[in-house]
Amino acid sequence: PVEADADGVRLAGRLIGAAPDAGVVLLAMSPDSAREFPVERENMTFRALIPSLPPGTWSLRIKLGDDLVPLAGWRDDIVDKRLAFVLPAATIEGVTLQPAYLADNTFAVRATS
Q: What SS3 class is residue 88?
């Protein structure tokens, strides 16, 4: 699930195939920068908060140990999630964080001021 509130954008999901003891970090990556966010993990599920990002489109990835795994939605029958889902946005200090699926069904946050 994806939620937006006064603290930012909250994400939760399952870590399919992840080793139970692997360290987990959420990465937001733009073409010229990367930001790390802490992840709360319980068994094979995770929760993370993105409190702010500079303007731009930020692809989201989970870092599991040494592996980078894109956040994506491939375990269903929806071919183009950009058209199927409108997700809640959060506005923090004048910057709107809009979660969205990209053309390849990977997950991103668009930050606009």
A: coil
